[in-house]
Amino acid sequence: MNREQTLRRRIKLLTWLFIIGLALSGTTAIPLQGELNLLVNFCESNGESSELARWLLRVRDALSQTQERHPFLFYGTDWLAFGHFVIAIAFIGALRDPVRNRWLFDFGLIACVMVIPYALVFGGLRGIPLWWRLIDCSFGLFGIIPLWFCRKWTSELEQLVSRGGTDEK
């Protein structure tokens, strides 16, 4: 396998990883109550009385009350999921033609970096514990890794293609 094929394979693999991560992250924004019930049950079955277990109980109780009194507020998390799905779909362009659509990797890197101040500032304003905000920040950090490699390899691929004159597809 030549270098161009290797780069294309790597870019495609990491782009798929990023797309799947976005889709899974979006999917988890929909069944919040069910997910929290599972987590709380897991913590209770393990005898957890940690700060995490107390936080999960607090969030579950708040979600239950919100579901009973104001279920329309969950429409916001439905749109959060939708946003994840749409961004994931946009990255199909990078799968099809990574050189022409390398701007998607820049866009993704910027978005991942923006997760960090966003989570820290707005999480603080909403009373989210710092340790939970750091978990949220980790999504941005983990997203940066495949996107950085994709951007790097796309630049190399562009140089190879421009030198060799091979077809982009």
SSE layout and pairing:
Layout (H helix, E strand, L loop, with lengths): L2 H25 L4 H14 L5 H19 L5 H16 L1 H5 L6 H23 L4 H35 L5
Describe, in plain words, how this protein is organized in 3D.
By secondary structure, the chain is mostly helical. Helices cover 81% and strands 0% of the residues.
List keywords for this structure.
169 residues; mainly alpha; 7 helices; 81% helix
Radius of gyration: 20 Å
Straight-line distance between termini: 16 Å
By DSSP, the count of extended strands is 0
Element-level helix/strand string? HHHHHHH
Profile the largest sheet.
none
Oligomer: single chain
Percentage of residues in DSSP E strands: under 5%
Q: Work out the helicity level.
A: over 70%
Overall 3D geometry?
elongated
In DSSP terms (H or I, runs of 4 or more residues), the helix count works out at: 7
Poorly predicted spans: none
- Estimated structural class: mainly alpha
Name the average pLDDT. Answer: 93
